[in-house]
Amino acid sequence: MRLQNITPSNTFSTSSVPSGNRAIVYNSNGDPARVLSAVSFPELSSPPPDTLNIRLLLAPINPADINVIEGIYPAKPHPDVSLSQSKDLLVFVGGNEGLGEVMEIGDGVAGLQKGDWVVLTKAQTGTWSSAKNVASSDVLKVPRQGLSEVQAATITVNPPTAYNMLHDFAQLAEGDWMIQNGANSAVGQAVIQIAAAKGYKTINFIRDREDVESLKSHLELLGATHVVTYDELFDKSFRAKVKTWTGGKDIRLGLNCVSGKTTTLMARLLGDSAHLVSYGAMSKEPLSLPTSLFIFKNLTCHGFWQTRWYSEKSLEERQELFDTLTALMRDGKLRDPGHEILTIGRMESDDSASERIRELVAQLGRGMYGKKVLLRIEETA
Ligand SMILES: NC(=O)c1ccc[n+]([C@@H]2O[C@H](COP(=O)([O-])OP(=O)(O)OC[C@H]3O[C@@H](n4cnc5c(N)ncnc54)[C@H](OP(=O)(O)O)[C@@H]3O)[C@@H](O)[C@H]2O)c1
């Protein structure tokens, strides 16, 4: 990927581009609060054969999207061909995940019609946009019935990650215990709900904050058995408290979203022959574990990456997981993550939209935002 070190304002005109659509883009890696820009672009032309024009209804801002823009994520984005001015001036639309509505269908596309909901199966195609032309082979139809827009827009990354980590490493049975940190993350919330639906008991760690009791109540409402702050992990009496909760039963699965010192302490709570699965490093600290856990407790550590799972599994397996998750959602067992929607309105200027998105990513970068943010980018007037 070749990126030129030029500022967005040199690249995109905010006045001379014909109106129609809008996207949040960047043309060089770096701090998203600096490199992101809103840019208007014309109506899409009719879709070529085997492609669709979709209107993007909602697209989340996930932590990995930020890392992709920073240039530190292993999965690389695909440049947007129509927005890139030349091969030396590549433009990337932010976002990996999102919900689209089919607007227009090219020749040769089967099984989809106008108005259908779809999600993208090809990673890193750029979803922070009002509309997009996509290959029909790169989308999966999502049932409209029983799913909210937010559930559908966030179905490809966090819920499958939660589901697979709960099932692929330790064979848990109803009544078994698991433990996780980053429990208020969107993944953590999905873990709590899927575990509760399976009858697994969960111990969930979160960072302390002013309104910690209301966050605890929210996670308990989702089905968390216990919610505790990391501070409690440092308390010597905490291990005994956990033993009382579990009745001495071994905790067989730990999920790590944050790494760092608190994960070392959390790992000490795991029982014999347990599995510790790392899927995030939100603290930006390394993970260090006592050797004794491997020798005397037969601990096994794993990493999990949903992108790898998708690349290794067949379409049928992907569809099966997708059907399982949509069924949980329709049954009310897997709810929206706590969220807010940032709407970039039809009448807003690109400058104002750029400013708002940069402010938002700066705020997200400071942490403790407390909600998943989704973008709704309207067509321009
Ligand atoms: N491996 C995979 O396949 C996969 C798939 C999905 C997600 N992920 C990763 O999982 C993590 C969570 O993703 P998400 O979409 O669920 O995130 P999210 O909803 O945006 O939540 C972010 C979480 O990170 C916590 N956090 C942020 N900074 C922290 C710090 N310095 N120390 C401790 N905790 C911190 C937040 O806690 P506060 O509320 O206290 O800030 C919150 O719980 C990310 O690292 C993401 O990249 C990995």
UniProtKB/TrEMBL annotation:
- Principal localization? mitochondrion
Q: Does the keyword Transit peptide apply?
A: yes
- State what protein this is by name: enoyl-[acyl-carrier-protein] reductase
Query: Which GO MF terms are attached to this record?
Result: enoyl-[acyl-carrier-protein] reductase (NADPH) activity
Q: Which species expresses this protein natively?
A: Rhizopogon vinicolor AM-OR11-026
Keywords attached to this entry: Fatty acid biosynthesis, Fatty acid metabolism, Lipid biosynthesis, Lipid metabolism, Mitochondrion, NADP, Oxidoreductase, Transit peptide
Its localization reads:
Mitochondrion
- Which Enzyme Commission numbers does its entry carry? 1.3.1.104
Q: Which GO terms describe its biological process?
A: fatty acid biosynthetic process
**What Gene Ontology cellular-component terms does the record carry?**
mitochondrion
The record, for Pfam families, names: ADH_N, ADH_zinc_N
**Which reaction is this enzyme known to catalyze?**
a 2,3-saturated acyl-[ACP] + NADP(+) = a (2E)-enoyl-[ACP] + NADPH + H(+)
The similarity annotation says: Belongs to the zinc-containing alcohol dehydrogenase family. Quinone oxidoreductase subfamily.
Question: What top-level branch of life does the organism fall under?
Answer: Eukaryota
The answer to whether UniProt assigns keyword Zinc to this entry is no
Tell me which residues make up the Enoyl reductase (ER) domain: 34-374
